[in-house]
Amino acid sequence: MIKIAPSILSADFSKLGDEIKKVEQAGADLIHIDVMDGHFVPNLTIGPNVVAAVRNVTKLPFDVHLMVSNPQDLVLPFIEAGADILTVHAEAASHLHRIIETIKKGNKGSCQAGVSLNPATSIVWIEDILREVDLILLMSVNPGFGGQSFIPLVLEKIRRLKAQLKACNSNAVIEVDGGINANTAASVIEAGADILVAGSAIYGAKNCAAAIRQLKNAAAL
C-alpha cells in the first residue's frame, strides 16, 4: 500500500495543530516535517519545540526530515520532541553511519532512521548502509522551498535504488519528496516509491481527502 505523507511546510503555521488534524482526518498516513536551518538550504523553518508542541495533536507518525548542515547536533533533540522517523542528508553527514546508529538507539530505539539524497547526488553515496536504514528519501526537487516542479531524472534513480535494495535484501522503504501531485504520482509509484510526500498538492487543494485519495489511487493507474 502506498502511504501519503502531507508536508506541513505547505500548511498554515498560524493554526498548525488544526492543519495536522485536518490531514489526519483526510486519510494521511504520516506527517512530514521539513526542518531547514538557513544554511544547508536557504530557508529556515522549525525546531524541536514546535514538534513537541504538536506531538499530542495526532497519533500519526512524525516523519522528520532534517535539511541541516550539522545533523548530529539535532538528532537527539528531535527524537525527544517526538520524531518517529528521522532522516538526515548524506551530503551533510560527515559520519553518516554513526548518525544512523545514534538515531536508532535514541529514546530506547523508538525512532526509525532515514537517509536522504538530493536530485544530483548518486545512490553510490549510500550503497554501504542500505541494510542499516529504515527509509531512503529521494528528493525530486532541489530542497529548500515548497511548490517546485518534479525533476524527471529522479525516476530512473528510484528504479536503480529499488533494484539495489532487493539485491542486498534491505527492508528499507523508498520515500519521494518534491513536485508530487496527481500528474506525477503514478510514474513515481511505478518506479518503486513506497511513500509520497506532498505539500501544496494536499494543503493547496479545496478538498484534502480527495487529494489524498487521488494520490493513493495513482498506484492503480
TrEMBL record:
Positions contributing to a divalent metal cation binding: 32, 34, 65, 177
GO-annotated cellular components: cytoplasm
Cofactor(s) needed by this chain: Mn(2+); Co(2+); a divalent metal cation; Zn(2+)
SUPFAM superfamilies, sorted: Ribulose-phoshate binding barrel (SSF51366)
Gene3D superfamilies named among the record's database cross-references: Aldolase class I (3.20.20.70)
UniProt xrefs under InterPro entries: Aldolase_TIM, Ribul_P_3_epim, Ribul_P_3_epim-like, RibuloseP-bd_barrel
CDD domains: RPE (cd00429)
NCBIfam families referenced in this protein's UniProt entry, alphabetically: PRK05581.1-4 (NF004076), rpe (TIGR01163)
Family in the record: Belongs to the ribulose-phosphate 3-epimerase family.
Protein name: Ribulose-phosphate 3-epimerase
Organism: Acetonema longum DSM 6540
Lineage, opening ranks: Bacteria, Bacillati, Bacillota, Negativicutes, Acetonemataceae
